[in-house]
């Protein structure tokens, strides 16, 4: 056995230092690991990037026997096994991508005690012959990843997860560990019951993702605004751009390519092979942008996604939080950026009303969309709004969202609101915003003449307000429920009970001032905030940074793994900051474990020593 191989007798802290190369445990990791090492069950609810994997990886290395990890996501299994092998940990997976022969090879290794961590899909696990195989080998623990899939209340119920409760009777003495990033109170209870781990220690850490910066921009020209965002903040970063439709995905990807970016489309209408290839390139190469529908993202475990941009509005805050949560898993600052406009509010409302869903379901969907719109239009801390949606109290003033950095002005828009609403009423509650605005502004066109709307009392009463501002007012009126979108008149606007209060009892309405576009070159500086790791803030030596990345790229290519499997960005940045002068010093850089030091240390050290 090589001497950097983890030994079963090592302590958790030793494994953390020597194998993973990290200095200290994060949050509840140490406690969770201790619980499981001592044979207890645990439920871990920790946000993405919080460090859930170590919570079962380290106990599996300490306890005798093989650690079994149940994961529904094949891509994730591959990634984890690849990354663990780089660390010198003996890991393997069993799933449908292996041939029967390969599977037999893995089971033979497991039987021979040559595997410490074994990843399996839930369907495979519950097969009688597999359970029998397991009963003949010592198990260190059973980890159930994505444990919210067990719950019907979770957003991603999987029937095959339901049977995992049977493990309680089959392996009564093996500690079980359920892990998830998203589970509210009801879902947590359901997980404990379904998995039959009533005595599990619960470790619920907050939902907050302190390293993500949230920003919502009113949409004027989405593409142009996206471009500005990319140029200003992410000229070379890897990221995801979400769009609602397949055609928009294709067009946006083409356009970004024309501008010189490497942008790849991903949606369910593309050939499976093309999708796979694009996903692999996104993982394996650096600085690639994926333009995708919501079909993309489940199980993507790329730590260095620097931004998630939405060119269209997601349907709910849950969806939004999950999609944006894919950014910055490595803890380094990342951006969640969205451009949102009147058109989509109308489209989404219309989609929803048009669907065949039963009324009960529509009601829930309407509420979800309203919360999403409420988030977009909010004038207070975005983080506070999101977290309170998930039932968590946050004091606000996070310092890492647009509303905190540039406080939003509001203005009393009661009079313009009354004008807008009465013009909707006078024109018969069947036109879209663009037409009503034309009437309000007193425009003279054939359509208006055709309907004789220049004779209305509301014709021209809004000429003192610009067209853009009117669009902003209508967007906010719809978002706040003062206007509804009627499907019978193809998206015409109608009054609602709430709008009557504004018209008749003079209830006041406040609007946010949409920010004027920032002057180019003026950059928002984000100060370091508690919870966001500081090293990313330090200026990097650009040429050294590029040299280290190039070394990493070559090593990754030769091994056929993504660059971050060799070293994370964070590790390279720390090398630049600390400038180690020998292998010993290099070993103390976070992310440099014994195996990686041995495999790559000399190469990276050489670059560091030769840098001027
Ligand atoms: P999750 O599964 O909760 O989304 P991961 O387990 O993938 O998160 O961990 C996120 C990142 O944080 C990984 O790159 C991991 O190596 C790193 N990490 C985890 N624990 C620590 C720690 N104690 N110190 C430094 N980095 C850590
Ligand atoms: Zn904030």
Quick structural overview:
With 612 residues, the chain is an alpha/beta fold.
Model description:
With 612 residues, this protein is α/β, with parallel strands linked by helices. It folds into four domains: 12-204, P-loop containing nucleotide triphosphate hydrolases (Rossmann fold, 3-Layer(aba) Sandwich); 212-405, Rossmann fold (3-Layer(aba) Sandwich), CATH 3.40.50; 410-512, Orthogonal Bundle (Arc Repressor Mutant, subunit A); 537-609, DNA polymerase, domain 1 (Orthogonal Bundle). The protein has 28 helices and 17 strands. The strands form four sheets. It has a seven-stranded parallel beta sheet with strand order 3-4-2-5-6-1-7, with helices on both faces. Strands 8-13-12-9-11-10 form a six-stranded parallel beta sheet, sandwiched between helices. The chain has a two-stranded antiparallel ribbon with strand order 14-17. The structure holds adenosine-5'-diphosphate (ADP) and zinc ion (ZN).
């Amino acid at each position: 056995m090589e001497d950097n191989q983890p030994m079963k007798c090592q302590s958790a802290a030793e494994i953390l230092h020597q194998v993973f190369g990290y200095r200290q445990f994060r949050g509840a990791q140490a406690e969770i690991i201790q619980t499981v090492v001592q044979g207890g069950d645990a439920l871990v609810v920790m946000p993405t990037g919080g460090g859930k994997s170590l919570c079962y990886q380290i106990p599996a290395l300490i306890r005798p026997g093989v650690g079994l990890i149940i994961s529904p996501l094949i891509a994730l299994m591959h990634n984890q096994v690849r990354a663990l092998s780089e660390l010198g940990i003996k890991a393997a997976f069993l799933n449908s991508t292996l041939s029967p022969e390969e599977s037999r090879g893995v089971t033979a290794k497991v039987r021979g005690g040559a595997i410490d961590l074994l990843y399996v899909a839930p369907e495979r696990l519950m097969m009688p012959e597999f359970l029998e195989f397991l009963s003949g080998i010592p198990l260190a623990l059973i980890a159930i990843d994505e444990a919210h899939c067990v719950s019907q209340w979770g957003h991603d119920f999987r029937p095959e997860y339901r049977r995992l409760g049977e493990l309680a009777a089959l392996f009564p003495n093996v500690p079980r560990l359920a892990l998830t990033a998203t589970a509210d109170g009801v879902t947590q209870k359901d997980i404990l019951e379904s998995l039959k781990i009533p005595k599990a220690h619960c470790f619920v850490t907050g939902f907050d993702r302190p390293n993500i910066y949230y920003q919502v921009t009113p949409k004027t020209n989405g593409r142009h605004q996206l471009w500005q965002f990319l140029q200003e903040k992410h000229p070379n970063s890897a990221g995801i751009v979400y769009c609602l439709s397949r055609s928009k995905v294709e067009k946006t990807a083409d356009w970004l390519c024309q501008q010189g970016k490497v942008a790849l489309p991903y949606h369910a209408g593309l050939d499976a092979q093309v999708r796979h290839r694009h996903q692999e390139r996104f993982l394996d190469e650096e600085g690639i942008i994926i333009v995708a529908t919501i079909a993309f993202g489940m199980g993507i475990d790329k730590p260095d996604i620097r931004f998630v941009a939405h060119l269209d509005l997601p349907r709910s805050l849950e969806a939004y939080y999950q999609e944006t949560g894919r950014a910055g898993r490595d803890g380094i600052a990342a951006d969640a950026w969205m451009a949102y406009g009147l058109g989509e509010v109308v489209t989404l409302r219309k989609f929803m009303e048009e669907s065949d869903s039963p009324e009960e379901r529509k009601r829930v969907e309407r509420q979800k969309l309203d919360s999403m719109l409420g988030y977009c239009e909010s004038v207070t801390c975005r983080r506070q709004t999101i977290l309170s949606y998930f039932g968590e109290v946050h004091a606000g003033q996070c310092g890492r969202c647009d509303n905190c950095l540039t406080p939003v002005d509001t203005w009393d828009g009661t009079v313009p609101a009354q004008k807008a609403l009465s013009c909707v009423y006078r024109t018969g509650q069947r036109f879209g915003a663009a037409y009503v605005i034309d009437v309000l502004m007193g425009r003279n066109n054939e359509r208006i003449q055709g309907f004789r709307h220049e004779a209305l009392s509301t014709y021209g009463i809004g000429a003192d307000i610009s067209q853009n501002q009117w669009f902003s007012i209508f967007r906010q009126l719809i978002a706040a429920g003062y206007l509804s979108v009627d499907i019978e008149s193809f998206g015409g606007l109608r009054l609602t009970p709430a709008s009557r209060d504004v018209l008749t009892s003079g209830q006041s309405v406040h609007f946010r001032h949409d920010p004027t576009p920032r002057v180019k070159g003026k950059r928002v500086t984000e100060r370091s905030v508690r919870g966001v790791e500081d090293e990313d803030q330090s200026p990097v030596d650009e040429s050294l940074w590029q040299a280290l990345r190039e070394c990493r790229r070559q090593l990754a290519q030769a091994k056929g793994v993504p660059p971050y499997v060799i070293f994370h960005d964070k590790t390279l940045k720390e090398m630049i900051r600390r400038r180690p002068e020998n292998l010993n010093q290099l070993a103390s850089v976070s992310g440099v474990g014994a195996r990686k030091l041995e495999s790559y240390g000399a190469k990276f050290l050489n670059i560091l020593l030769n840098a001027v």
